[in-house]
Amino acid sequence: MLRVGIVSHILPPSPSGQATVLRQLLDGFPPDRYVLLSRERYDFEGDAANKGGKLPAPYIAFRPPSRVPSFGRFPGSSIRFAGDTILGIRDRARQITEIARKERLGLIVACSGDLYDIPASCLAAGRTGIPFVPYLFDDYLYQWTGPMRAAARRFEPWVMKHAKAVIVPNEYLRDEYAKRYGVRATVVRNPCPLPDLAALDGATRVFPRDGIDIVYTGAVYHAHYDAFRNLVAAIRMLGRPDIRLHLYTAQTAEEIGKIGIGGPKVLHHPHIPPAEVPAVLRQADILFLPLGFDTPIPEVIRTSAPGKMGEYLSVGRPILVHAPGDSFVSWYFRENRCGLVVDRSDPDLLSASIPRLFSDGDLRAGLGARARAAAERDFEVGAVRVRFMEALNAFAGGC
Protein backbone atom coordinates (compact mmCIF):
# COMPACT_ATOMS: atom_id res chain seq x y z
CA MET A 1 0.00 0.00 0.00
CA LEU A 2 1.44 3.37 -1.07
CA ARG A 3 2.43 5.70 1.78
CA VAL A 4 3.51 9.18 0.76
CA GLY A 5 5.75 11.64 2.57
CA ILE A 6 4.65 15.22 1.88
CA VAL A 7 7.46 17.69 2.61
CA SER A 8 6.39 21.34 2.83
CA HIS A 9 7.61 24.39 4.72
CA ILE A 10 3.98 25.26 5.46
CA LEU A 11 1.04 22.97 6.18
CA PRO A 12 -2.61 23.16 7.21
CA PRO A 13 -3.92 24.91 9.22
CA SER A 14 -1.54 27.77 8.36
CA PRO A 15 -3.30 30.64 6.54
CA SER A 16 -1.45 30.38 3.22
CA GLY A 17 -2.38 29.39 -0.30
CA GLN A 18 0.00 26.43 -0.37
CA ALA A 19 -1.33 25.05 2.92
CA THR A 20 -4.90 25.47 1.69
CA VAL A 21 -4.16 23.59 -1.53
CA LEU A 22 -2.55 20.73 0.40
CA ARG A 23 -5.60 20.57 2.65
CA GLN A 24 -7.95 20.29 -0.31
CA LEU A 25 -5.84 17.61 -2.00
CA LEU A 26 -5.27 15.49 1.10
CA ASP A 27 -8.66 15.79 2.81
CA GLY A 28 -9.92 12.72 0.98
CA PHE A 29 -6.70 10.74 1.46
CA PRO A 30 -6.79 8.01 4.17
CA PRO A 31 -4.68 9.34 7.07
CA ASP A 32 -2.60 6.17 7.23
CA ARG A 33 -1.48 6.70 3.62
CA TYR A 34 0.58 9.86 4.13
CA VAL A 35 2.91 11.66 6.54
CA LEU A 36 3.48 15.43 6.73
CA LEU A 37 7.05 16.71 7.19
CA SER A 38 7.91 20.35 7.83
CA ARG A 39 10.49 22.70 9.29
CA GLU A 40 7.60 24.20 11.31
CA ARG A 41 6.03 22.64 14.38
CA TYR A 42 2.32 21.82 14.31
CA ASP A 43 2.03 20.08 17.67
CA PHE A 44 -0.25 22.75 19.16
CA GLU A 45 -3.84 22.05 20.16
CA GLY A 46 -6.77 24.44 20.06
CA ASP A 47 -4.90 27.40 18.58
CA ALA A 48 -7.55 30.06 18.08
CA ALA A 49 -5.63 31.57 15.18
CA ASN A 50 -5.81 28.32 13.22
CA LYS A 51 -9.49 27.47 13.20
CA GLY A 52 -9.21 25.41 10.03
CA GLY A 53 -7.72 22.51 12.01
CA LYS A 54 -4.98 20.04 11.26
CA LEU A 55 -5.13 17.14 8.84
CA PRO A 56 -5.56 13.73 10.53
CA ALA A 57 -2.21 12.29 9.39
CA PRO A 58 1.02 12.42 11.45
CA TYR A 59 2.95 15.72 11.48
CA ILE A 60 6.72 15.41 11.90
CA ALA A 61 8.87 18.50 12.48
CA PHE A 62 12.48 18.66 11.33
CA ARG A 63 15.17 19.55 13.79
CA PRO A 64 16.68 23.01 13.20
CA PRO A 65 19.35 22.93 10.48
CA SER A 66 23.02 22.72 11.33
CA ARG A 67 25.07 25.90 10.97
CA VAL A 68 28.73 26.71 10.39
CA PRO A 69 30.30 28.03 13.61
CA SER A 70 30.99 31.74 13.13
CA PHE A 71 33.73 32.26 15.72
CA GLY A 72 32.74 35.92 15.51
CA ARG A 73 34.15 36.35 12.00
CA PHE A 74 32.27 37.16 8.76
CA PRO A 75 28.82 36.22 10.12
CA GLY A 76 27.07 37.31 6.93
CA SER A 77 29.61 36.29 4.30
CA SER A 78 28.81 34.32 1.16
CA ILE A 79 31.20 31.60 2.32
CA ARG A 80 29.26 31.22 5.54
CA PHE A 81 25.96 31.13 3.62
CA ALA A 82 27.29 28.40 1.32
CA GLY A 83 28.49 26.37 4.29
CA ASP A 84 25.20 26.77 6.12
CA THR A 85 23.29 25.73 3.01
CA ILE A 86 25.34 22.57 2.44
CA LEU A 87 25.13 21.58 6.10
CA GLY A 88 21.42 22.37 6.26
CA ILE A 89 20.55 20.30 3.20
CA ARG A 90 22.66 17.34 4.33
CA ASP A 91 21.17 17.46 7.80
CA ARG A 92 17.62 17.63 6.47
CA ALA A 93 18.33 14.82 4.02
CA ARG A 94 19.46 12.62 6.93
CA GLN A 95 16.23 13.37 8.77
CA ILE A 96 14.06 12.64 5.73
CA THR A 97 15.97 9.39 5.18
CA GLU A 98 15.34 8.31 8.78
CA ILE A 99 11.66 9.21 8.57
CA ALA A 100 11.21 7.52 5.19
CA ARG A 101 12.59 4.22 6.53
CA LYS A 102 10.72 4.38 9.82
CA GLU A 103 7.39 5.30 8.19
CA ARG A 104 7.89 2.87 5.27
CA LEU A 105 7.29 5.54 2.64
CA GLY A 106 6.81 4.54 -0.97
CA LEU A 107 7.05 8.06 -2.43
CA ILE A 108 8.49 11.42 -1.36
CA VAL A 109 6.76 14.58 -2.62
CA ALA A 110 8.71 17.74 -1.81
CA CYS A 111 6.97 21.10 -2.22
CA SER A 112 8.64 24.37 -3.18
CA GLY A 113 8.85 27.30 -0.79
CA ASP A 114 11.93 26.30 1.23
CA LEU A 115 15.43 26.26 -0.25
CA TYR A 116 16.41 23.02 1.51
CA ASP A 117 13.34 20.80 1.13
CA ILE A 118 13.62 19.83 -2.53
CA PRO A 119 17.37 19.04 -2.75
CA ALA A 120 17.27 17.34 0.68
CA SER A 121 14.36 15.16 -0.41
CA CYS A 122 16.22 14.29 -3.61
CA LEU A 123 19.25 13.20 -1.56
CA ALA A 124 17.07 11.13 0.77
CA ALA A 125 15.34 9.47 -2.16
CA GLY A 126 18.67 8.48 -3.64
CA ARG A 127 19.76 6.93 -0.34
CA THR A 128 16.54 4.95 0.12
CA GLY A 129 15.64 4.11 -3.47
CA ILE A 130 12.24 5.76 -3.00
CA PRO A 131 10.82 7.71 -5.98
CA PHE A 132 11.01 11.48 -5.52
CA VAL A 133 8.66 14.11 -6.99
CA PRO A 134 9.12 17.90 -6.71
CA TYR A 135 5.77 19.71 -6.37
CA LEU A 136 6.46 23.21 -7.70
CA PHE A 137 3.84 25.65 -6.49
CA ASP A 138 6.17 28.33 -7.91
CA ASP A 139 9.32 28.35 -9.99
CA TYR A 140 11.93 26.88 -7.61
CA LEU A 141 14.83 28.73 -9.24
CA TYR A 142 13.36 32.21 -9.53
CA GLN A 143 11.35 32.43 -6.32
CA TRP A 144 14.64 33.30 -4.62
CA THR A 145 16.90 36.33 -4.98
CA GLY A 146 20.59 36.92 -4.29
CA PRO A 147 22.70 34.05 -2.88
CA MET A 148 19.64 31.82 -2.47
CA ARG A 149 18.94 32.01 -6.22
CA ALA A 150 22.57 31.22 -6.94
CA ALA A 151 22.28 28.14 -4.72
CA ALA A 152 19.01 27.07 -6.35
CA ARG A 153 20.63 27.44 -9.77
CA ARG A 154 23.21 24.82 -8.77
CA PHE A 155 20.70 22.42 -7.22
CA GLU A 156 17.86 22.54 -9.72
CA PRO A 157 19.46 20.75 -12.73
CA TRP A 158 20.61 17.91 -10.48
CA VAL A 159 17.17 17.66 -8.86
CA MET A 160 15.39 17.54 -12.21
CA LYS A 161 17.77 14.85 -13.45
CA HIS A 162 16.89 12.58 -10.52
CA ALA A 163 13.18 13.35 -10.13
CA LYS A 164 10.75 10.58 -10.97
CA ALA A 165 8.22 13.21 -12.11
CA VAL A 166 7.29 16.85 -11.50
CA ILE A 167 3.95 18.40 -10.44
CA VAL A 168 3.01 21.99 -11.33
CA PRO A 169 -0.25 23.96 -11.00
CA ASN A 170 -0.54 25.35 -14.54
CA GLU A 171 0.51 25.14 -18.17
CA TYR A 172 2.91 28.10 -18.05
CA LEU A 173 5.07 26.50 -15.36
CA ARG A 174 4.81 23.12 -17.13
CA ASP A 175 6.10 24.67 -20.36
CA GLU A 176 8.87 26.56 -18.55
CA TYR A 177 10.32 23.34 -17.09
CA ALA A 178 9.93 21.55 -20.41
CA LYS A 179 11.99 24.29 -22.05
CA ARG A 180 14.54 24.45 -19.22
CA TYR A 181 15.15 20.72 -18.67
CA GLY A 182 13.06 18.76 -21.15
CA VAL A 183 10.82 17.40 -18.39
CA ARG A 184 7.09 16.87 -18.95
CA ALA A 185 5.44 17.97 -15.73
CA THR A 186 1.96 16.89 -14.63
CA VAL A 187 -0.50 19.75 -14.15
CA VAL A 188 -2.54 19.49 -10.94
CA ARG A 189 -4.56 22.66 -10.52
CA ASN A 190 -5.04 24.31 -7.16
CA PRO A 191 -8.48 22.91 -6.27
CA CYS A 192 -11.48 24.31 -4.45
CA PRO A 193 -14.90 23.04 -3.33
CA LEU A 194 -17.83 24.36 -5.35
CA PRO A 195 -20.15 26.17 -2.94
CA ASP A 196 -23.94 26.11 -3.22
CA LEU A 197 -24.61 29.57 -4.63
CA ALA A 198 -28.27 29.59 -3.59
CA ALA A 199 -27.26 28.85 0.00
CA LEU A 200 -24.65 31.61 -0.10
CA ASP A 201 -27.23 34.06 -1.42
CA GLY A 202 -29.41 33.28 1.58
CA ALA A 203 -26.63 33.86 4.10
CA THR A 204 -26.52 36.82 6.48
CA ARG A 205 -25.21 39.94 4.79
CA VAL A 206 -21.57 40.79 5.41
CA PHE A 207 -21.60 44.12 3.56
CA PRO A 208 -24.39 46.72 3.51
CA ARG A 209 -26.01 47.30 0.13
CA ASP A 210 -24.93 50.92 -0.08
CA GLY A 211 -21.85 50.97 -2.27
CA ILE A 212 -19.24 49.07 -4.25
CA ASP A 213 -17.40 46.50 -2.14
CA ILE A 214 -14.11 45.28 -3.67
CA VAL A 215 -12.78 42.22 -1.85
CA TYR A 216 -9.41 40.51 -1.60
CA THR A 217 -8.73 37.47 0.59
CA GLY A 218 -5.29 36.10 1.36
CA ALA A 219 -1.72 37.13 2.07
CA VAL A 220 -0.50 40.59 1.06
CA TYR A 221 3.21 40.43 0.19
CA HIS A 222 5.88 41.59 -2.25
CA ALA A 223 4.44 39.62 -5.19
CA HIS A 224 1.70 42.24 -5.56
CA TYR A 225 2.46 45.37 -3.53
CA ASP A 226 2.45 47.71 -6.53
CA ALA A 227 -0.77 46.20 -7.91
CA PHE A 228 -2.49 47.00 -4.60
CA ARG A 229 -1.05 50.51 -4.60
CA ASN A 230 -2.46 51.00 -8.10
CA LEU A 231 -5.89 49.95 -6.89
CA VAL A 232 -5.77 52.29 -3.88
CA ALA A 233 -4.78 55.12 -6.24
CA ALA A 234 -7.58 54.19 -8.66
CA ILE A 235 -10.19 54.28 -5.89
CA ARG A 236 -8.87 57.64 -4.72
CA MET A 237 -9.05 59.01 -8.29
CA LEU A 238 -12.72 58.07 -8.59
CA GLY A 239 -13.53 60.26 -5.60
CA ARG A 240 -16.60 58.25 -4.69
CA PRO A 241 -17.37 57.74 -1.00
CA ASP A 242 -19.27 54.50 -1.72
CA ILE A 243 -16.28 52.49 -3.01
CA ARG A 244 -14.50 50.36 -0.41
CA LEU A 245 -11.61 47.89 -0.57
CA HIS A 246 -11.87 45.04 1.95
CA LEU A 247 -8.69 43.10 2.74
CA TYR A 248 -9.10 39.79 4.59
CA THR A 249 -5.55 38.89 5.49
CA ALA A 250 -3.28 37.59 8.23
CA GLN A 251 -1.08 40.68 7.78
CA THR A 252 -1.90 43.55 10.13
CA ALA A 253 -3.19 46.93 9.01
CA GLU A 254 0.07 48.45 10.25
CA GLU A 255 2.18 46.05 8.18
CA ILE A 256 0.39 46.74 4.91
CA GLY A 257 0.02 50.43 5.67
CA LYS A 258 3.81 50.80 5.80
CA ILE A 259 4.08 49.84 2.13
CA GLY A 260 1.38 52.26 0.96
CA ILE A 261 -1.72 50.06 1.08
CA GLY A 262 -4.07 51.98 3.30
CA GLY A 263 -6.36 54.95 3.65
CA PRO A 264 -9.98 55.66 4.59
CA LYS A 265 -11.33 53.44 1.81
CA VAL A 266 -9.19 50.42 2.74
CA LEU A 267 -10.92 48.29 5.37
CA HIS A 268 -8.72 45.71 7.06
CA HIS A 269 -10.23 42.45 8.31
CA PRO A 270 -8.42 39.57 10.05
CA HIS A 271 -7.82 36.26 8.31
CA ILE A 272 -11.00 34.16 8.30
CA PRO A 273 -11.33 30.35 8.29
CA PRO A 274 -11.72 28.68 4.87
CA ALA A 275 -15.34 27.75 5.57
CA GLU A 276 -16.29 31.42 5.90
CA VAL A 277 -14.55 32.65 2.75
CA PRO A 278 -17.20 31.72 0.11
CA ALA A 279 -19.92 33.79 1.78
CA VAL A 280 -17.67 36.85 1.85
CA LEU A 281 -16.61 36.36 -1.77
CA ARG A 282 -20.17 35.83 -2.99
CA GLN A 283 -21.34 39.12 -1.49
CA ALA A 284 -18.53 41.16 -3.04
CA ASP A 285 -19.38 43.45 -5.93
CA ILE A 286 -15.88 42.94 -7.37
CA LEU A 287 -13.18 40.41 -6.48
CA PHE A 288 -9.63 41.73 -6.92
CA LEU A 289 -6.92 39.35 -8.16
CA PRO A 290 -3.51 41.11 -8.29
CA LEU A 291 0.03 40.22 -9.30
CA GLY A 292 2.86 42.74 -9.26
CA PHE A 293 4.41 44.55 -12.21
CA ASP A 294 7.58 45.73 -10.46
CA THR A 295 8.88 42.88 -8.30
CA PRO A 296 12.22 41.12 -7.79
CA ILE A 297 10.64 37.89 -9.10
CA PRO A 298 9.08 38.64 -12.54
CA GLU A 299 9.70 35.06 -13.69
CA VAL A 300 7.60 33.77 -10.80
CA ILE A 301 4.85 36.30 -11.51
CA ARG A 302 4.64 35.08 -15.11
CA THR A 303 4.10 31.43 -14.16
CA SER A 304 2.21 31.92 -10.90
CA ALA A 305 -1.17 30.29 -10.22
CA PRO A 306 -2.56 31.91 -7.05
CA GLY A 307 -4.32 29.41 -4.82
CA LYS A 308 -7.35 31.71 -4.62
CA MET A 309 -8.08 31.53 -8.37
CA GLY A 310 -10.49 28.61 -8.11
CA GLU A 311 -12.08 30.05 -4.97
CA TYR A 312 -12.78 33.35 -6.71
CA LEU A 313 -14.12 31.66 -9.84
CA SER A 314 -16.36 29.30 -7.87
CA VAL A 315 -18.62 32.02 -6.41
CA GLY A 316 -19.60 33.45 -9.78
CA ARG A 317 -18.78 37.10 -9.06
CA PRO A 318 -17.07 39.65 -11.35
CA ILE A 319 -13.30 39.39 -11.03
CA LEU A 320 -10.93 42.29 -11.71
CA VAL A 321 -7.52 40.90 -12.65
CA HIS A 322 -4.58 43.28 -12.40
CA ALA A 323 -1.51 41.37 -13.54
CA PRO A 324 1.17 41.56 -16.27
CA GLY A 325 0.01 40.68 -19.75
CA ASP A 326 2.49 37.81 -20.15
CA SER A 327 1.34 36.05 -16.97
CA PHE A 328 -0.60 32.80 -16.72
CA VAL A 329 -3.27 34.60 -14.70
CA SER A 330 -3.95 37.22 -17.38
CA TRP A 331 -3.92 34.55 -20.10
CA TYR A 332 -6.36 32.30 -18.25
CA PHE A 333 -8.92 35.02 -17.60
CA ARG A 334 -8.68 36.41 -21.14
CA GLU A 335 -8.85 32.94 -22.70
CA ASN A 336 -11.93 31.94 -20.69
CA ARG A 337 -13.51 35.42 -20.65
CA CYS A 338 -14.19 34.96 -16.94
CA GLY A 339 -12.76 38.22 -15.60
CA LEU A 340 -11.91 41.76 -16.62
CA VAL A 341 -8.15 42.00 -17.17
CA VAL A 342 -6.12 45.18 -16.69
CA ASP A 343 -2.65 44.05 -17.73
CA ARG A 344 -0.80 47.36 -17.51
CA SER A 345 0.43 49.11 -14.36
CA ASP A 346 -1.94 52.02 -14.84
CA PRO A 347 -4.26 53.36 -12.11
CA ASP A 348 -6.25 55.24 -14.77
CA LEU A 349 -7.20 51.98 -16.48
CA LEU A 350 -8.15 50.45 -13.13
CA SER A 351 -10.27 53.45 -12.18
CA ALA A 352 -12.19 53.14 -15.46
CA SER A 353 -12.75 49.41 -14.88
CA ILE A 354 -14.38 49.69 -11.46
CA PRO A 355 -17.54 51.65 -12.40
CA ARG A 356 -17.82 49.64 -15.61
CA LEU A 357 -17.85 46.36 -13.70
CA PHE A 358 -20.40 47.71 -11.25
CA SER A 359 -22.79 49.38 -13.67
CA ASP A 360 -22.85 47.05 -16.69
CA GLY A 361 -25.30 44.30 -15.69
CA ASP A 362 -24.75 42.19 -18.80
CA LEU A 363 -20.98 42.28 -18.33
CA ARG A 364 -21.28 41.31 -14.67
CA ALA A 365 -23.66 38.44 -15.40
CA GLY A 366 -21.55 37.09 -18.24
CA LEU A 367 -18.30 37.23 -16.29
CA GLY A 368 -19.92 35.59 -13.27
CA ALA A 369 -21.46 32.76 -15.26
CA ARG A 370 -18.25 32.01 -17.14
CA ALA A 371 -16.26 32.17 -13.90
CA ARG A 372 -18.43 29.53 -12.28
CA ALA A 373 -18.23 27.36 -15.41
CA ALA A 374 -14.42 27.61 -15.39
CA ALA A 375 -14.33 26.57 -11.73
CA GLU A 376 -16.55 23.56 -12.41
CA ARG A 377 -14.40 22.48 -15.35
CA ASP A 378 -10.88 23.11 -14.03
CA PHE A 379 -10.84 23.47 -10.25
CA GLU A 380 -13.53 21.25 -8.71
CA VAL A 381 -11.86 19.61 -5.74
CA GLY A 382 -13.16 16.07 -6.28
CA ALA A 383 -11.86 15.83 -9.85
CA VAL A 384 -8.52 17.47 -9.05
CA ARG A 385 -8.05 15.20 -6.01
CA VAL A 386 -8.62 12.11 -8.15
CA ARG A 387 -6.06 13.36 -10.67
CA PHE A 388 -3.56 13.97 -7.87
CA MET A 389 -4.04 10.52 -6.32
CA GLU A 390 -3.83 8.78 -9.70
CA ALA A 391 -0.62 10.68 -10.46
CA LEU A 392 0.95 9.67 -7.12
CA ASN A 393 0.16 6.01 -7.72
CA ALA A 394 1.61 6.21 -11.23
CA PHE A 395 4.79 7.92 -9.95
CA ALA A 396 5.25 5.20 -7.34
CA GLY A 397 4.87 2.47 -9.92
CA GLY A 398 1.32 1.54 -9.04
CA CYS A 399 2.08 0.55 -5.42
Description:
The protein is an alpha/beta fold. It folds into two domains: 4-191 and 381-395, Glycogen Phosphorylase B (Rossmann fold, 3-Layer(aba) Sandwich), CATH 3.40.50.2000; 197-378, Glycogen Phosphorylase B (Rossmann fold), CATH 3.40.50. 44% of the residues lie in helices and 14% in strands. It has helices spanning 17-26, 78-102, 117-128, 146-162, 171-181, 197-201, 225-238, 253-257, 277-283, 298-303, 308-314, 328-336, 347-359, 361-378, 381-395, and strands at 4-7, 34-38, 59-61, 107-111, 132-135, 167-168, 186-187, 212-217, 243-249, 266-270, 286-290, 319-322, 340-342. It has a six-stranded parallel sheet, sandwiched between helices. Helix 3 (117-128) links the parallel strand 4 (107-111) and strand 5. The longest helix has 25 residues, at 78-102.
β content, as a range?
A: 5-15%
Q: Major sheet: order of its strands?
A: 10-9-8-11-12-13
Number of helices: 15
Uncertain stretches of 5 or more adjacent residues = 47-51
Q: How many domains make up the 3D coordinates?
A: 2
Shape: globular
CATH class of the largest domain, please?
Alpha Beta
Largest sheet: 6 strands, parallel
How many beta-strand elements? 13
Termini gap: 6 Å
The arrangement of helices and strands along the chain is EHEEHEHEHEHEHEHEHEHEHHEHEHHH
Average pLDDT works out at: 93
Helical content (DSSP H or I, runs of 4+): 40-55%
Class of secondary structure makeup: alpha/beta
CATH architecture of the largest domain: 3-Layer(aba) Sandwich
CATH H-level homologous superfamily name of the largest domain? Glycogen Phosphorylase B
Radius of gyration: 22 Å
